[in-house]
Design a protein that fits this description.
heterodimer; A: 319 residues; alpha/beta; Rossmann fold; 2 domains; eight-stranded mixed beta sheet; four-stranded antiparallel beta sheet; 11 helices; globular; B: 340 residues; 13 helices; binds adenosine-5'-triphosphate; binds iron/sulfur cluster; binds magnesium ion
């Protein structure tokens, strides 16, 4: 164990939503979420669309001002006052390689911008060398520096985004669906790039994605979210092979596996009903409206996330 | 007797652009039988969607079918009049587009759009069409259908919009459903609902389905037969088991190596090196040669034919012609061998 790099305690992120002429209702996008990430570790984060994954990532980096909770970086509290001094250590790679890069900037300037902001060079030559080093690190060549982002393929653009995030020498990167928009074989290149960088530079990742096979491949542990709350957190293989929470069970059963024989032999557990509106959360366990095992207790109280042995955490009254 | 619904022969489609002729589809042939599910996979830009659009004749300018034939129940679709083609689309062959928002009109209610489609293709009157619309929404698992018909597309969730699209595509009980990336925009649980639904309807109505996707999981789950496309051509075709367990084209093998597998531990992924072919300048030999680890001399000069591997399996790769491969191995004129 190399120690906690990041610790999140009771993180809350509410958005005020206008529900009438004079009323607002808080949308609880992230509600009381706690977890930690070790140095050089990858924590996967999965869950239905709209459950709050991106919001967790953004709140961690104070791109939103958290409504509540505490964030510790290397044991020290991070807050609105001191966040600027942590910006360098914590970065984010975004989902869409097409819209997250400025088309009017050269690749060199896109990567150089964070170097400029944090004044990470003493002269022009050093800036140029740093950019070349970063391009090389993500598998691009130094000639690419003078070209514009729109001249590159999706996979190459995603690497430019990664090089930019790496420019400031971060210890932690939130990867928000970094490969979803890419072709299968390019996905593999980017995944390998992330893994190589982790080995070489010891970076920790929060890895958000829909594709559970990729998340399992990347992560040491996986956290499952449902409607703003963590419902399960365990070792990646353990969680994929023996999910415990009824939502995780149905999620794992629904993952399409690229293996026809396995596909024929297993049964999908298809969830009934739609996700409840985050503005009108069910009482107690948020999953109970779609849960086959729901009992009266589930409506009365919110199940806490408890260790079921071997650091396998589950929030459910009946599982 | 096989009941062939669709027979595509040597289909060729090109885009006549300012920078030259983009050969998007270069001689694609396949059959689709009643009640079967055919999967089309392949790299982005390999011509999957353009193949589907060519069959339905919904290509946009400057795209044109420049060769080949498309038979639907024995009739050449490419020779259909405007009226005939309109009745083919929607009534006999329906398509679900990747992005439901582009094909649903934001200014009309969901019910309105469903009813329009139904009235256009059947002789139902307004109230019958409304009845049918509600029936279809119920069938695709949309709750409260009476309420939903009055809603606009933006008032529905992504999964629900996709189901409305499917309801619309199925309202006229087509013989063939073409689903172009039907679940890419959805998350796993909703995707499972939609796939389950498509399988159920396929069994109930005996319809044939063509699924276009780059998700090999969806393909493994749904398809009887698989076509793998590369640079506008079919590089391999076979039953689902043949393609997954006995791939014979180097591109197919590369594709399967580049995805993580269940229960395989954390083995490093093997991406396919190099970059896609330039369709404006198609190479002379095998289109995959420049990226292929095992390319031989002949691969650079001669395009491989479709070579039969088994009764229901073919691959267009020189590695499968024993005489060619042996000769290359003997004379040591193999190109690659280096691990990219
Ligand atoms: N800036 C915002 N203002 C108001 N509501 C927001 C804002 N950002 C997110 N939300 C809401 O918070 C909830 C969580 O959104 P979030 O984007 O974190 O989900 P997600 O898990 O990342 O989903 P996806 O998988 O679709 O990306 C959603 O209901 C969303 O509508
Ligand atoms: N309007 C157009 N003008 C010029 N070229 C086009 C046009 N539409 C498509 N093409 C070309 O035709 C080729 C095939 O495109 P198609 O959309 O069929 O690919 P695809 O296999 O469906 O890819 P994807 O998986 O990304 O959807 C592409 O290389 C594309 O560049
Ligand atoms: S707490 Fe109750 S409703 Fe929630 S998942 Fe467990 S059994 Fe289902
Ligand atoms: Mg998100
Ligand atoms: Mg397409």
């Amino acid at each position: 164990m190399s120690g906690k790099l990041l610790e999140v305690k009771n993180l809350k992120q509410y958005f005020p939503i206008k529900t009438g002429l004079f009323e607002t209702t808080p949308l609880k996008a992230v509600d009381d979420v706690s977890f930690s990430i070790e140095k050089g570790e990858t924590l996967g984060l999965v869950g239905e669309s709209g459950c709050g994954k991106t919001t967790v990532g953004r709140s961690l980096l104070h791109l939103y001002r958290p409504t509540g909770g505490e964030i510790y970086y290397d044991g020290k509290p991070v807050n609105a006052k001191n966040i600027e001094s942590y910006r360098k250590d914590m970065q984010m790679v975004f989902q869409d390689p097409y819209s997250s890069l400025n088309p009017r900037m050269t690749v060199g300037d896109i990567i150089g911008e964070p170097l400029d902001i944090h004044r990470l060079y003493s002269n022009k030559q050093e800036r140029k060398e740093k950019i070349e080093y970063l391009l090389d690190l993500v598998g691009l060549s130094s000639e690419h520096a003078t070209r514009y982002a729109h001249e590159f393929s999706g996979g190459q653009r995603q690497r430019i985004g990664i090089a930019r995030a790496l420019a400031v020498d971060p210890k932690f990167i939130v990867c928000d669906e970094p490969v979803s928009a890419l072709d299968v074989s390019i996905q593999a290149q980017i995944i390998n790039t992330f893994e190589d960088l982790q080995i070489k530079l010891g970076i920790a990742y929060l890895f958000i994605a829909h594709d559970l096979l990729i998340v399992q491949h990347m992560s040491r542990r996986i956290a499952v979210m449902y409607l703003g709350k963590l419902v399960e957190l365990a070792n990646a293989d353990e969680l994929c092979e023996h999910p415990v929470h009824p939502y995780s069970v149905s999620l794992m059963s629904a993952v399409p596996v690229p293996d026809p024989k396995m596909a024929r032999s297993r049964r999908r557990i298809v969830l009934e009903g739609d996700v409840p509106s985050p503005l009108r959360m069910p009482s107690g366990c948020a999953f109970r409206t779609r849960c086959r095992y729901a009992t009266e207790k589930c409506a009365e109280a919110t199940p806490p996330l408890t260790d079921r042995g071997g650091e396998h955490f589950v929030a459910c009254w009946n599982a | 007797m096989k009941d062939t619904l669709l027979n595509v022969k040597d289909l060729q489609t090109a885009f006549f652009t300012d920078s030259g002729v983009v050969r998007a589809v270069n001689g694609v042939s396949f059959n689709l039988e009643k009640g079967k599910v055919l999967g089309i996979v392949g790299e982005s830009g390999s011509g999957k969607s353009v193949t589907a659009y060519s069959i339905l004749r919904i290509l946009v300018d400057p795209g044109k079918v420049v060769g080949g034939e498309v038979f639907f129940k024995g009739e050449d679709v490419l020779k259909y009049s405007k009226r005939e083609i309109r009745s083919l689309r929607g009534e006999k062959i329906s398509i679900i587009f990747q992005d439901p928002m582009t094909s649903l009109n934001p200014v009309y209610t969901v019910g309105n759009q469903l009813m329009e489609t139904i009235m256009l293709h059947t002789d139902r009157n307004r109230s019958e069409a409304r009845q049918r619309a509600i029936e279809m929404l119920t069938l695709v698992g949309v709750n409260d259908p009476e309420k939903r018909v009055k809603q606009y597309p933006h008032e529905l969730s992504g999964g629900m919009r996709q189901r409305v699209m499917i309801a619309m595509a199925l309202a006229c009980e087509p013989d063939i459903l073409i689903a172009d990336e039907p679940t890419t925009a959805l998350d796993v649980t909703i995707q499972a609902q939609i796939l389950e639904l498509m399988q159920e309807l396929q069994k109930k109505l005996g319809m044939a389905i063509i699924i276009i996707t780059h998700d090999l999981g969806v393909i493994a789950d749904m398809c009887d037969e698989i076509i793998v496309m590369y640079a506008g051509r079919i590089c391999e075709r076979g039953t689902s088991d043949e393609i997954f367990y006995n791939p014979k084209h180097e591109y197919t093998k590369g594709l399967l190596r580049s995805i993580p597998k269940l229960g395989m531990g954390h083995i490093r992924l093997k991406p396919i090196g190099g970059s896609p072919v330039d369709l404006l300048n198609m190479p002379k030999g095998c289109a995959f040669a420049s990226r292929c680890d095992r390319a031989m001399k002949i691969c650079l000069t001669n395009q491989p034919d479709e070579i039969a591997i088994g009764p229901e399996h073919m691959a267009a790769c020189w590695m499968n012609v024993k005489a060619v491969y042996d000769e290359a191995a003997d004379s040591g004129n193999k190109q690659g061998g280096d691990d990219k």
